[in-house]
Design brief:
The structure is a single chain. The chain is of the alpha/beta class. It is built from 17 helices and seven strands. The chain has a seven-stranded mixed sheet with strand order 2-1-4-5-6-3-7. Strand 4, helix 11 and strand 5 form a beta-alpha-beta unit. The protein is globular.
Length: 399
Amino acid sequence: MIVFEKNKETKELEALASNKISDELTGKMLAIAEKYCITGNLSALYAAYLLAMDTNTFSLACEKNKSGELGSIEKYALADAVKIYSIYVTADEADVYVPSSENVNNEDCRAGKLISALADKLIKSNNAEEILKTLKEFYTERGSGIFALYRGYTVTEKGELCPVMKYSDATFDGIYGYERHKKLLCENTEAFIEGKKANNALLYGDSGTGKSTSVKALLNKYHGDGLRMIGIQKHQFSFLPSIISDLSLRNYKFVLYLDDLSFENFETEYKYLKAIIEGGVAEKPENIIIYATSNRRHLVKETFEEREGGGDLHRAETTNEKVSLSERFGLQIYYAKPDRQEYIDMVLFLAEKAYPDFDQDTLISGANAWAVKHGGFSGRAAEQFIHSLSGSGERPAAK
């Protein structure tokens, strides 16, 4: 193939096109159908999976150029489409593979629906030109590779992106209160998605107040607008330059999500982050923003010894260096722990969904007792209390 660069995947496409399907390739086809819970002709489905996951010159051109005018590259891509068409023109729609498990609520099976829809369109194509048109529409709308099929990612210990198999179902409607906080976060994110100036955000405050849930809810709300989210741990910050370099080439909006961020005195990874956010040789690309959550506003720990000098001849400069990390987050949102009434309101809000006919007095009494034993009033304590009811055998008495 010409535009679809030579790699293991394109060799498999050529094997499918020439109907030279080995036992090893058949095994892979079965594994993909089972993993993604997809039903249909095995060859057609597997080819659609390879085409969706292959990031190549043509798919990147489509992803970046939303106008659809690609110039001369389409001529070369058409030669590849001829080979791809030979896979689908011989695919027997009556030869249907049915996976052993039904489509369940996880990211793999969600991606499987996209693969199946692409395969259906390709198998209905009447010629190579229609194959190319279908692929062009798919790459233009969704892009290619893991970003086309998945929404959230983590970073492996080798610095590679790995799709999240089960993403949080958090939504803003499921977060009681904190309306101003949610509004600020959404407005900043919408500006970022629209290509306007937006700030890196630090959500800080008491534990269990919904900081992490708020960030996770963003992806469920805006993934259809091209938002993608990458969770990265502080010991992986050395990978940030290479990750950001790769992401800058893609036509998506990426949130780098740093959860529960803080640094001890002996940890120096924060210097990587400072350079990335602001002050490095290479500027952070406009399609990347950083959202962090922390229980502390000042992310780098200071001690009284440091405040009093601690042997440092330039104490003020050392202190400023540590404080300056927080200052690089232009949007700082404080999440305070709820008072007793706000906590009870959260419990009633959550219980209304799980137990629509509960006795409020019994529920409130149990919620107060739970808070005493579990660290006080917080959104997390309210949620844990509701969860405890389903597993303990106890139920709020019906009215």
